[in-house]
């Protein structure tokens, strides 16, 4: 679970970040992944940038064979102002490496996210 603040509306948003990567040698501890999400979401942000930044940082630091990040968010600017669409969620994704070229890998990752 993450919490952030929209840079456009100065309204909070929150949700879940799902991270998958295919190691090529280095691996990250689970707490490091949670800390990465926390560090990226701590500042004024937009969800699209959060998603890309998490994927880019993992790609740069771990140099894995592939990275896929899916971020779900509920934006209070959608609930409390304007269109007032309570419970609506926005989903963004970023794919790098082997995930980009393989629909089977992307499908496998996405199938793990179903509750």
Sum up the structure in keywords.
single chain, alpha+beta, GTP Cyclohydrolase I, domain 2, globular
Describe this structure in words.
- With 115 residues, the protein is α+β, with helices and mostly antiparallel strands.
- It has one domain (2-112): 2-Layer Sandwich (GTP Cyclohydrolase I, domain 2).
- The protein has helices at residues 30-41, 47-62, 76-80, 98-101, 103-112, and strands spanning 2-6, 12-22, 44-45, 66-75, 90-97.
- A five-stranded mixed beta sheet has the order 3-1-2-4-5.
- A hairpin with a 5-residue loop joins strand 1 and strand 2 (12-22).
- The mean pLDDT is 92.
Summarize the structure.
The protein is 41% helix and 31% strand. It contains 5 helices and 5 strands; from the N terminus they run ββαβαβαβαα.
The structural class is: alpha+beta
Largest sheet: 5 strands, mixed
- The ordered string of helix (H) and strand (E) elements is EEHEHEHEHH
Tally of structural domains: 1
Count of separate DSSP helical elements: 5
- In total, the number of strands is 5
Q: Low-confidence parts, pLDDT < 50 over ≥5 residues?
A: none
- Widest sheet: strand ordering: 3-1-2-4-5
Which percent range fits the helix content?
40-55%
How do the helices and strands line up, and which of them pair or pack?
Elements: E1 2-6, E2 12-22, H1 30-41, E3 44-45, H2 47-62, E4 66-75, H3 76-80, E5 90-97, H4 98-101, H5 103-112
